[in-house]
Design a protein that fits this description.
- By secondary structure, the chain is α+β, with helices and mostly antiparallel strands.
- It contains 4 helices and 7 strands.
- The chain has one domain.
- Zinc ion (ZN) binds next to helix 4.
């Protein structure tokens, strides 16, 4: 298979040197998909969505919730994205729920 190139992050990169990052609605990264490996290539956002969520109803659900995918080079991924970092927003939500529960109990 000829090597596919994409223009991303202001330069031309081999698709195999790129990844689709899934962003949660709060703005935190929550997944990564290598854009090309072996005979598989995911050159468009739609192809990446289909690979992550084969079912249309799942894609619709996550897209409605505000999830999005972004293609970036592994270079940029390594310098900007930390999938190991815990989402601070979900934790804030839990705290608020705990406060609400405490208030309701008072
Ligand atoms: Zn978050």
């Amino acid at each position: 298979m000829p090597e596919l190139k994409v223009e991303v992050d202001g330069g031309l990169h081999a698709l195999s040197n790129c990844a689709w990052i899934t962003w949660a609605p709060c703005g935190c990264p929550c997944g990564a998909l290598t854009a090309a490996f072996g005979d598989d290539a995911f050159a468009t956002e739609d192809q990446a969505w289909r690979e992550h969520y084969p079912l249309k109803r799942d894609r619709d659900k996550y897209q409605r919730q505000g999830y999005r995918m972004e293609l970036m080079s592994w270079e940029r991924y390594r310098s900007e994205v930390d999938l190991a970092a815990k989402c601070p927003h979900a934790k804030g939500k839990t705290t608020q729920q705990t406060l609400d529960a405490a208030e309701a109990a008072a």
